[in-house]
Amino acid sequence: MIRGNKRFPKMAEAHQAVAFQFTVTPDGIDLRLSHEALKQIYLSGLHSWKKKFIRFKNGIITGVYPASPSSWLIVVVGVMSTMYAKIDPSLGIIAKINRTLDTTGCMSSQTKNVVSGVLFGTGLWVALIITMRYSLKVLLSYHGWMFAQHGKISRATRIWMGLVKIFSGRKPMLYSFQTSLPRLPVPAVKDTVDRYLESVKPLMKESDFKRMTVLAQDFAVSLGPKLQWYLKLKSWWATNYVSDWWEEYVYLRGRGPLMVNSNYYAMDLLYVMPTQIQAARAGNSIHAILLYRRRLDREEIKPILLLGSTVPLCSAQWERMFNTSRIPGEETDTIQHMRDSKHIVVFHKGRYFKVWLYYDGRLLKPREIEQQMQRILDDPSEPQPGEAKLAALTAGERVPWAKCRQAYFGHGKNKQSLDAVEKAAFFVTLDETEQGYRKEDPEASMDSYAKSLLHGRCFDRWFDKSLTFIVFKNGKIGMNAEHSWADAPIVAHLWEYVLATDCFQLGYAEDGHCKGDPNPNIPYPTRLQWDIPEECQQVIETSLNSATILASDVDFHSFPFHTFGKGLIKKCRTSPDAFVQLALQLAHYKDMGKFCLTYEASMTRLFREGRTETVRSCSTESCNFVLAMVDPTQTFEQRLRLFKVASEKHQHLYRLAMTGSGIDRHLFCLYVVSKYLAVDSPFLKEVLSEPWRLSTSQTPQQQVELFDLERNPEYVCSGGGFGPVADDGYGVSYILVGENLISFHISSKFSSPETDSHRFGKHLTQAMTDIIRLFGFSANSKK
What we know:
Blueprint: H1 9-17, E1 20-25, E2 28-33, H2 35-64, H3 69-84, H4 93-102, H5 109-140, H6 155-167, H7 189-200, H8 206-221, H9 223-237, H10 243-252, E3 264-267, H11 278-297, E4 305-306, E5 311-312, E6 324-327, E7 334-337, E8 343-348, E9 351-356, E10 358-359, E11 362-363, H12 366-378, H13 392-395, H14 398-408, H15 412-422, E12 427-430, H16 442-454, E13 467-471, E14 477-481, H17 488-506, E15 526-527, H18 534-552, E16 554-561, H19 566-571, H20 576-592, E17 598-603, E18 612-616, H21 620-629, H22 636-658, H23 664-676, H24 682-688, E19 694-698, E20 720-722, E21 730-737, E22 741-749, H25 757-773
Parallel strand pairs: 8-12, 12-13, 17-19, 19-21
Antiparallel strand pairs: 1-2, 3-14, 3-20, 4-5, 6-7, 8-9, 9-15, 10-11, 13-14, 16-22, 17-18, 21-22
């Protein structure tokens, strides 16, 4: 059998793929079987059937949750036992079933009794499941615990928690709670309008606020109730009244570039570099990602639970994490998700390689993946015409990409190669640059790292893929994620697992390579073949030029704030998130000299298929606090009192958003209904056109136990970030890591004369230290 070699990897793989060959001779047909190829076919089929069986089994387990399949046997045996004891547990139902079976005339009396008992037991079992599921849904509709004083749990809440745990069953899988989660409630129009007016009052002149109040109150009594009726109807019919419209109109119908405007990124560990061998880091990390995907396929990932592992969050967003790509369209994009994918596509020096993930019916081991990556790095071939910058199509405007895809990628080798990219498990870039935190130049190195992950060179990331995994030349890694299929906490959950598995479970040999041995029998990665005409190459260049202008305009400042962290903030008996948000308000006021509409992303995953809601962090209370901080006549005591009031207000707004009583998703959906009905609403039009000049998001740490920062304090993650939402505003992402570190990622645009990310970073650092001093702590207090 012909083995792969460096010069002819494609031909070698073609030979291996042929299971048999035959030739016609004078003596008849000479049939030669390739036992190796037949073995691989057999193992591949075995792997597929095993996966189907696991999905089938998990479907049953999830379908009957919070009961278990074995509980059916218990119920049926219990029913049969009472029947043989001459006790009728069915109140005559079993006898009716028996009489019905009598009409068939093909069963003995004993058989009819058994069948009747089994049918009744099964019906009773199904009824119990439905009762338990509905009871759990009713219990989970209660959110009073969210508004209780922090650290204090009332007796009523403890009783409620106990009931939730009783009805929650044992050993839940990832999707076990989905059918038990309540639907997102539709708030009353008047409540939403009142909350909206309260949020914009500190941002408007008195005359503008009076005008807006008239518009809002007119909407609340005239058009609002009509639109609300349709929205209520949708909420009864659909699983979630927001999510499908949010995905379609906010993400998929956007015609601007995904790069910078929509996609976001995740960074590597801040200080630790497990290995400096690019192929080795790729080998371990890709294997870790695939281990996570296997756990996801088997639903072995535990659902996220709040309040002492009691209240489940929706897991729906995990479904499209892998094997997913956004497909461009002229009017709207679509999301293509494959049930399975057995390959990845790797980009390096302008070439695209297809890498199979399985050999001998199993996942490739880390050392084998490293071997494949090294083969790609060593490949001397040149890019084909138009291939090197092809991915720039995914970085530019959507319409040219959609037209180009339809015209030039609908048939032949271009279609096959594009299918390979879009149907891959995920996309990998072996980057030619070195990135990451450098002690000798921390500021410039982190800013460069952030920009590389956000946009790279505009043609070396496939921005349409759900996940683009990036491995830099010096062994640093990162992730760029498309936004429509899920929000950042879902990607963060994967990323935490990958970093921890890479460092603590897989590890590296002393020479920096992955543990284990290479396997020379594994076929070489194959080059994807393209035939890109001149006309398409011109579209690629045009997209690249516009993407480069956009990327060059991004002013990024990413930095670790290690003066103090969550540990000290909690000693102040305040919410760490509220603390940072008020620091952001103070920093913005010092930076701009004014207040602005502020967006903080909150989640609504307490409800089925929930995604996000907006917390309007700039409130009357936060403005009063900020003004006191810049007023030299105010005492520390006055400022501290106003801080506590503002902090409490922020936490209240956050809780309202999480429990379905936010402002912006409700108004957004009312606006969508108005468009369907072709009615004009001056109020809604003005609300939805207001720019978010300060857009913020906290990246949660969800699996703290994976890192054990007390033992491994240097294994801190840098979090991730996103581009500016408004041309003249800031985008700020932050993550509270352990007890003593907060990482910030600040973005803006050079083209705006009003913004400067580094200047804002300095104001933010000063604001953080000014606020902590109100509590009597020095800026360097950590304990």
